[in-house]
């Protein structure tokens, strides 16, 4: 183990008054639990849970209460911290294993439904690589929920160090934009949200003592120690100008995709969504599914159309969950048949298989399914990256950019856009520039999907799959 990590272990091993002084850590743990409660996680299932960097068990306590039927592996890099957590919980909880483990060097072979970490990631030397490895441990539809310090933490202290041109002793932390770039986009979808916490302190020396008491005082690897006089200048300046310090905390949520493949949505009606679904199904040798089908009194339906166009065998087709007669939104079509839809009562689980899935929605992202339920909620349940199908003609910019915005507002990962129709280079460029997204392919309208076309189409989409 390198000297830097050894210093961290020694600091936390000697943190004798952690729980009395860890005010921010307690607040952040509660915030993280509040966030977890907003997610659609079945707390009654016997879930497998990993906690990275448990400290003295501030978050552990809440997790045990929230997930009483779960199986836990609780870890920390500090042997002393693990012993303290054992003393707290081992006697009354037979569903916990305790491990001394560096979160950056995980030596576990099993996978998990949920992985948690609160204010431990800021000690990692290579957070991007660590996040990549940690998310590999998630089961399909599994979550990583975490908190870490972000770049503006201890801003008051940094300003004083900068004013005197001293090298700051505090660690450097990533921005939210940098943290966003760390998510493995081909494995799942994630987002970060930021919150500032301001801690009042009596004076600078008490603040430093507080950090020492919780073991959080290890300086950055490149820090050059100050002389006693220089450090006194820093403390005096802090006491004169500040009576507080700021923690910028980033809360992260990452959900692993349910399977490989794509959810296909459109920007409007008749944009070629079903045709593109057929192309993707054929090109990727995928399984096709249309969960909700309407308009069966007008045509045979998209499932039959895709199967005919792409020459898909029956075993690579999943029957729709809902089939309705009128060519209307699912909500309105259901009313004509005296039905009330509720996607929370339907099973959108994708069976484990080697081939990818192409799942086609009904209409666009905000097509109503029921009261307060839209196609975008169905996308979240299916949990695949989304491809937006848009027309190339006039009006596509508004429809496409609005679709991109609503998907991003709901934290739904978008793989890109496929344009269907006569090529329009200006619209393609505008969508990519304003939407900050890639147009994966441009597909002309065709009656027949030829093998030659599929070969070319597969070349275009390979970079995104």
Automatic annotation (TrEMBL):
Tree of life domain: Bacteria
Family matches, as CDD domains: AdoMet_MTases, DTBS
A Gene Ontology term for the protein's cellular component: cytoplasm
GO MF terms held by the record: ATP binding; dethiobiotin synthase activity; magnesium ion binding
GO BP annotations listed: biotin biosynthetic process
Annotated catalytic residues: 290
Positions contributing to ATP binding: 270-275, 302, 360-363
Localization annotation: Cytoplasm
PANTHER family reported for this sequence: DETHIOBIOTIN SYNTHETASE
Family: Belongs to the dethiobiotin synthetase family.
Name the UniProt record assigns to this protein: ATP-dependent dethiobiotin synthetase BioD
